[in-house]
Automatic annotation (TrEMBL):
GO terms for cellular component: cytosol. Coiled coil: none annotated. It comes from Pelolinea submarina. One of its GO terms (molecular function) is phosphatase activity. InterPro entries: Cof, HAD-like_sf, HAD-SF_hydro_IIB, HAD_sf. Pfam families: Hydrolase_3. This is Phosphoglycolate phosphatase. SUPFAM superfamilies: HAD-like (SSF56784).
Length: 278
C-alpha cells in the first residue's frame, strides 16, 4: 500500500505481548491513559493478538477497549460489548488430530485455542506456568483427541511450545507432512498455526471493513514478525524498540521498548500526527 503520512487515523490496532504488555506480562505504564486520550479524540483502539479472548479480557478491561478485538492470530474477531463473535475461521479437524499425534511423539506442548479458552495435554515445565493474573485461560485435559471428539468443534488456532531447536524440527516436519500452510514463529519458543489464508493483515482488513474505516486511516503498533502482515496493509506502522531489526526496518516509525512505556508513546505519536493532518 502506498502510504500518505499526512493522513489522519481513525483506528489504532495494538499487538499485546511485547507491545502493550511489558516483559512481566502487565499492561505497560501509561497505556490506559493513552488509550483514553485516543478515544476522547474520536480514535477507536483495538487489540490484535495471538491470544484467545479469555487471555485478552484482563487487558480489555484494564485499558478500556470498546471496539471489537482480533484474537487467535487473526482467526477470530470478537465484539467485547455484545460478547458475540463477529467472524471465526476454524482449523481443519483431520489435520489438527494429526498435529496432536505429532506433538505427542516429539514431546512438545500443543495448545489448541478456541475463542474463549484453550486446551492442552502437557503441563508447563516447572517455573514456566503463566501467573493467573495474566489471564491465560488454558485447561489441562488428559486426552486432546478425545476432547476434540467430545467438543465436536475445531479450534481456531494451534500453538506449539518447546525449545528452539526442537521447534525448528517440528516446524519442518509439519511442512513435510503438508498439514498446515499458515505457520509462523510467534517467538523463539512458540509456533502459531492458523487457518489457511488467515493472518493479522487479513483480519484487520475485515475489521476495518466492519467498522467502515479505510485501511489508509488505520495505524498499527507491533513488535514481532507475525505483525508484518498488518504493517503492510495499514496506513501507518510503529514497531516497538524491543522488536527484531527486520520488524523495525519494515515500520514507518520505531517506539521505545515495551518496558519503557513504548505503547503509550506510540499512541500519542499517532494522535500528534492526527493533529498535524487536521
Amino acid at each position: 500500500m502506498s502510504k500518505d503520512l499526512q493522513t489522519a487515523f481513525d483506528l489504532i490496532a495494538i499487538d499485546c505481548d511485547g507491545t502493550i504488555l511489558d516483559s512481566g506480562k502487565n499492561v505497560s505504564a501509561g497505556a490506559h491513559e493513552a488509550v483514553a486520550e485516543a478515544c476522547a479524540n474520536g480514535v477507536e483502539v483495538t487489540l490484535i493478538s495471538g491470544r484467545n479472548y479469555g487471555s485478552m479480557e484482563f487487558i480489555v478491561d484494564e485499558i478500556g477497549i470498546a471496539a471489537p478485538i482480533i484474537g487467535g492470530g487473526g482467526a477470530f474477531i470478537y465484539d467485547v460489548q455484545s460478547k458475540k463473535t463477529i467472524e471465526k475461521h476454524p482449523l481443519p479437524l483431520p489435520e489438527t488430530r494429526e498435529l496432536v499425534r505429532l506433538c505427542r511423539k516429539e514431546e512438545v506442548i500443543l495448545v489448541l485455542e478456541y475463542v474463549h479458552n484453550a486446551i492442552q495435554e502437557r503441563s508447563f515445565p516447572p517455573g514456566k506456568r503463566p501467573h493467573p493474573k495474566h489471564g491465560y485461560q488454558r485447561h489441562i485435559i488428559p486426552d486432546l483427541l478425545e476432547e476434540l471428539d467430545k467438543l465436536g468443534e475445531p479450534p481456531v488456532k494451534a500453538m506449539v511450545l518447546g525449545e528452539s531447536q526442537t521447534l525448528k524440527m517440528v516446524f519442518e516436519r509439519i511442512q513435510r507432512l503438508g498439514l498446515f500452510d499458515s505457520m509462523s514463529f510467534s517467538s523463539s519458543s512458540s509456533i502459531d498455526i492458523v487457518p489457511s489464508g488467515v493472518n493479522k493483515g487479513s483480519s484487520l482488513t475485515a475489521l476495518a471493513q466492519h467498522l467502515n474505516v479505510p485501511l489508509q486511516r488505520v495505524a498499527v503498533i507491533g513488535d514481532w514478525l507475525n505483525d508484518l502482515d498488518m504493517f503492510r496493509i495499514s496506513g501507518f506502522s510503529i514497531a516497538m524498540g524491543n522488536a527484531p531489526d527486520e520488524v523495525k526496518a519494515a515500520a514507518d516509525l520505531v517506539a521505545p521498548e515495551n518496558d519503557h512505556s513504548g505503547a503509550a508513546w506510540a499512541i500519542r505519536e499517532i494522535l500528534k500526527r492526527n493533529q498535524s493532518a487536521g
